[in-house]
Specification:
The chain is mostly beta strands. It has strands at residues 3-7, 12-19, 22-29, 34-39, 43-49, 51-55, 60-64, 68-71, 75-81, 86-92. It has a single domain (3-92), classed as Jelly Rolls (Sandwich), CATH 2.60.120.10. The chain contains no helices and 10 strands.
């Protein structure tokens, strides 16, 4: 079953799905604004297209297409798409 999610007045859109018993989302973040996400489960965010900047707890780092970052459970992170929209795959880790 697919589930559509919209956050921050539509500037982040994603489709949630489950594969082989693991949850994931694929989506797009509009360029410009910073957004904060809280995490209940550990996550791996892989950048599919574009450039994301992420603050994972103290400093900002850039993640171009083909790279990823991981965030622990019960935490959070700030993210910003730079230079236009960025697409991502978010996998919820076991």
């Amino acid at each position: 079953m697919l589930k559509h999610n919209s956050y921050f007045n539509g500037s982040v859109q994603s489709i949630g799905f489950e594969r082989n018993g693991l949850r994931a989302t694929v989506g797009v973040i509009a360029g410009g604004e910073q957004h904060h996400f809280n995490t209940a489960a550990a996550e791996r965010m892989t950048v599919i297209s574009g450039l994301l900047r992420a603050n994972l707890g103290g400093s900002w780092a850039s993640f171009p297409a083909g790279t990823y970052f991981e965030v622990g459970a019960n935490g959070g992170f700030d993210v910003q798409a730079v230079g236009g929209p960025a697409a991502y795959l978010c996998e919820f880790l076991p």
